[in-house]
Each structure stands twice: as structure tokens, then as C-alpha cells.
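Reopening this one. Same input as before:
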Amino acid sequence: MSNKIFIDTNILVYAYDKTNEIKHDKAKSILFLKISEKDDFFISAQILNEFYYVLARKQVSHSSIVNYVNEIIENTKVLPILLENTMKAIDIKERYSFAWFDSVILATSLQNGCHLIYSEDFQHNQVVEGTLKIINPFADE
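Same output, byte for byte:
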């Protein structure tokens, strides 16, 4: 049985941006785990938009970003943002006090059956709604 793992924008950015070598290596190792462990990686259309925006602000060329986006699309399942995700995000924001776009990410993850999310934007090892565990791969354990 495979794990359904959601990947947040920051993990993808670190995987393609070599500015922080330690985080780059860690992010790349996470993405390569999929190949050996047969995990299913998920992102949302929101993540692709954020990824493009962050790399463009880092002065990465449009053509390079497009190549990266295509590579990501080939290796992950891209989830749409639906009305149901927005309604669930409203509940998550109210219950947990997360930022709005973080709530949308969590709602999308939960409503698509993901059990893990890799992100540095949340509390490491926090569990949301009793089923979604947040892993900050850069946290000191």
C-alpha cells in the first residue's frame, strides 16, 4: 500500500533552488524517496502557481521554470482547488488559526486522502483532523 503524500511549495522550491545546499539536498532526497518506496506524491494547482512565483522572484528564467513545472507535473498528481476545498479551508482556519492559503493546502490534502504533508510552514509532527501528519524535514528532531 502506498502513502498519499502532499508536497508543499517550499519543498519543491528547495529541490530546484541550490541557494541553501542543506535544504536543497534534503528536499531532493524526499522527492527521490517516491521512486524507491512507491509513494504517491500530490500537489495542487495552488502549489504550482506559488512555485512559479517564488522562482521568478529569485530571477530564475521563465523557460527554466516551465521545464521544472513540467517535470513536477510528470512526477506528481496535481489536484484542483474545488469549492469543497474552500469550504473545508474555512473550517480549518477557524479551528486551527492557520493562514488562509495554508488552510487551503491542508483542506485539499485532507479531502484527497493524503496522510502526510511535507512542509516547513507548520509545526513539525502536528496532526490535523486526526489523519494528516505534518512533517517538517528541516526540523531538528
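So the earlier flakiness isn't reproducible anymore. For the record, The radius of gyration is 15 Å.
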